[in-house]
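PROTEIN DESIGN WORKSHEET
SECTION A - STRUCTURE
LENGTH: 425
C-ALPHA CELLS:
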C-alpha cells in the first residue's frame, strides 16, 4: 500500500520579503524590521487590487470549492481548504517568525508544549534514545519522564549548563535526538549552541533548542546550525501574556514537511484569532526586547550589590559563569529573565514575592508586565518535586525567578528595594 502524505506537496509560506518585493529581500533589512514587514505572499482571496495591511481573521473551518478539481489543486499547489491544514492568519505569523529566525520555514502551534511534543514525536520512534538536560522546563521534563518511556523511548539526562562533551559521552547507536533549553529554566545556565549543533551534525543526530528564555530576537539558534529551533510564543514572541502559542522553525524543507504532517495529524494548530494576536505581538518584538534587556541589566546590577541577595544569575553579568558564551550567542542582548537567591531561605523568598507592588506574583514570563515567583514553593515546589530533588537540581530555598517587563527600570528597582526592606534575616 502506498501511503500518500499531503504535506509532501506543501511548502512553508514565503513572506513577501523572502520572495523579494521590488528587489528588497530579508537580508536588506535589519532584524527588528523583518517581523514588521513580513507578510505571507499568498493572496487573501483570488484576484484583488488591494491587500489588507493586517491579515484578516477568517473564522471559517472550511473553504467552498468551485468544483472537485479545485480540491486537488489546492492540495498540490497550495491554498486553503480546511483550517487544521493552515489558514491565512497563521501563515502570516509563521512568515514573520521565520523572517526573524532565518530558517526554511516555521510552524505555529496551540502552545509551546504542543510544539515540543510534536517535534519530539516527529523525530523519534519506539526503541530510540533522547538526551536532554536537567533541570528543564517542567512540562518538557514531565513529557520525557512519564510519557515517552510508555512508548519505549529512552531518555538520558545531562546537567543543564554542562559542556557538549557530556552529551557526547551518552550518545548510543539508537540516539536520535539531542535536546536542550538555553538559557535554562529556572537556573539560567547556558548550552553552547554552536558546539551542540556540530555534535549533532557530525553524528547525524537531530538537534533541538528551546530558546524561549532568550526570544528569537536575541538568540537565533538556526544560525548556529541546529535543526529545530523552538519558542513558546506565549512568552516573548507574543509578549503580552494574552495568548498561548508555540513555534518551530527548521533548517530544511523536508523537516518542515515531516513536522507539518505530524502537527496536522495530532491537530495542535493555532486558531486564526490567536494567530492574529500573536502577529500583532511579533511586530514589536525588537523594541520590546531592547527594553527588556536594558531593564534586566540595571536590575541585575542592583540586586548583585544588595546585601540581602546571595547571588544573581543573569547572562549579562560578568559574574555569570558562562558570560563569555552568552556574549557569543545571545547577540541582541541578554534577555529579560534572571534568577537570584535571597538570603534567609524560604521565608525570605516568600516575603519578597508577596511584598512587591508593581511586579506581579505570577508564573510565566516574557510579557510587558514584570512577573516574579518563588521557585522553591511554586514551579519547583513541594507539589511538584521533593525538596531533595529540587536541591539536586541546584534550586535553593531562597531561589527567585524574575521576568523583567518593560516598565520604567527605576520603578522596578524601587519596588524590589522596598520589598527587600521587609525581609528580615
Ligand atoms: C513556557 C515554556 C514552555 C511551554 O510553553 P507553553 O506555551 O506554556 O506550552 C516550554 N519551554 C520553556 C522554556 C518555557 O518557558
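SECTION B - SEQUENCE
RESIDUE ASSIGNMENT:
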Amino acid at each position: 500500500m502506498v501511503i500518500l502524505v499531503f504535506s509532501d506537496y506543501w511548502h512553508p509560506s514565503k513572506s513577501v520579503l523572502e520572495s523579494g518585493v521590488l528587489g528588497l529581500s530579508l537580508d536588506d533589512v535589519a532584524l527588528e524590521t523583518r517581523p514588521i514587514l513580513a507578510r505571507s505572499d499568498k493572496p487573501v482571496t483570488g484576484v484583488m487590487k488591494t491587500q489588507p495591511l493586517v491579515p484578516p481573521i477568517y473564522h471559517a473551518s472550511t473553504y467552498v470549492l468551485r468544483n472537485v478539481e479545485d480540491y486537488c489543486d489546492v492540495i498540490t499547489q497550495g491554498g486553503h481548504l480546511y483550517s487544521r491544514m493552515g489558514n491565512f492568519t497563521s501563515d502570516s505569523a509563521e512568515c514573520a517568525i521565520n523572517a526573524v529566525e532565518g530558517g526554511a520555514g516555521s510552524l505555529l502551534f496551540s502552545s509551546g508544549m504542543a510544539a515540543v511534543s510534536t517535534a519530539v514525536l516527529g523525530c523519534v520512534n519506539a526503541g530510540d534514545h533522547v538526551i536532554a538536560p536537567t533541570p528543564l522546563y517542567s512540562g518538557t521534563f514531565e513529557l520525557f519522564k512519564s510519557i515517552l518511556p510508555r512508548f519505549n523511548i529512552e531518555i538520558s539526562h545531562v546537567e543543564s549548563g554542562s559542556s557538549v562533551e557530556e552529551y557526547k559521552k551518552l550518545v548510543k547507536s539508537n540516539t536520535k535526538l539531542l535536546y536542550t533549553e538555553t538559557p535554562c529554566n529556572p537556573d539560567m545556565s547556558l548550552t553552547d549552541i554552536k558546539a551542540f549543533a556540530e555534535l549533532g551534525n557530525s553524528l547525524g543526530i537531530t538537534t533541538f533548542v528551546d530558546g524561549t528564555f532568550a526570544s528569537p530576537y536575541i538568540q537565533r539558534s538556526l544560525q548556529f546550525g541546529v535543526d529545530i529551533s523552538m519558542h513558546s510564543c506565549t512568552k516573548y514572541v507574543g509578549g503580552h501574556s494574552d495568548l498561548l502559542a508555540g513555534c518551530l522553525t527548521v533548517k530544511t524543507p523536508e523537516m518542515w514537511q515531516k513536522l507539518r504532517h505530524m502537527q496536522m495529524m495530532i491537530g495542535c494548530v493555532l486558531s486564526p484569532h490567536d494567530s492574529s494576536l500573536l502577529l500583532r505581538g511579533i511586530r514589536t518584538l525588537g523594541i520590546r526586547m531592547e527594553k527588556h534587556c536594558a531593564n534586566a541589566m540595571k536590575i541585575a546590577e542592583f540586586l548583585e550589590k544588595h546585601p540581602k541577595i546571595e547571588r544573581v544569575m543573569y547572562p549579562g553579568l560578568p559574574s555569570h559563569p558562562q558570560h563569555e558564551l552568552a556574549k557569543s550567542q545571545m547577540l541582541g542582548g541578554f534577555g529579560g529573565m534572571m534568577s537570584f537567591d535571597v538570603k534567609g531561605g524560604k521565608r525570605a523568598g516568600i516575603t519578597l514575592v508577596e511584598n512587591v507592588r508593581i511586579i506581579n506574583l505570577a508564573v510565566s514570563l516574557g510579557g510587558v508586565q514584570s512577573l516574579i515567583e518563588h521557585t522553591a514553593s511554586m514551579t519547583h515546589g513541594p507539589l511538584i518535586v521533593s525538596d531533595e530533588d529540587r536541591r539536586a537540581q541546584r534550586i535553593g530555598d531562597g531561589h527567585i525567578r524574575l521576568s523583567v517587563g518593560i516598565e520604567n527600570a527605576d520603578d522596578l528597582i524601587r519596588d524590589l528595594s522596598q520589598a527587600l526592606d521587609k525581609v528580615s534575616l
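SECTION C - NOTES
The pocket of pyridoxal-5'-phosphate is lined by residues 111-113, 137, 139-140, 181, 185, 210, 212-213, 232, 234-235, 244, 246 (CB under 6 Å).
The CA atoms of residues 318 and 368 lie 26 Å apart.
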